[in-house]
Amino acid sequence: MSHSANVRSLEAIRQFRVAVLAFAEEATAAVEMLRQQSHRALEWIDHDRPSFWRSETRRCFDDVAAARSHLAKRQQISVGGRRPACIEEKNVLQRSKRRLDAAVAMNTTVRQWSVKIHRAADVYATRIARLDRIVAHDVPQLVALLERIITTLEAYATSAPVAVAATQNT
User: Fold this and answer.
1) Helices (H), 44-86
2) More exposed terminus of the chain, fewer Cβ within 10 Å: N or C?
């Protein structure tokens, strides 16, 4: 087994070390950005959307009540002994009821999606933790190893001509 190194460029190892450090910085920044975006998404689904749909549901209840009241008033009016058909008011009431049903359904949907997104966020956090661990633990070890390699090779490169000259003199 040969104990000699076949190193062609010490500069290539230095450049690789710099590239590893740049990767670590970019990966750290990317992981932090992804964590912030994940947090914002969870915040949106947990607080913003439920609040919006609760207020939308209340507004729709108010619209249905107003439409019913308006329809009841119109039905009490009689013109020439005949009651009006109130088609337009009935259509408004139906549209208001459909919007209310949609708002109530969205409340349920938001709760369901909240559960799903939290599960997905947990899976994501587990996976991103691996990258974070690599960047925090393995990359510094790799950089230290590369520094030792560079130092050893530099020492070897400066001492090799002396050793060769000594063997040639004997």
Assistant:
1) 49-76
2) N
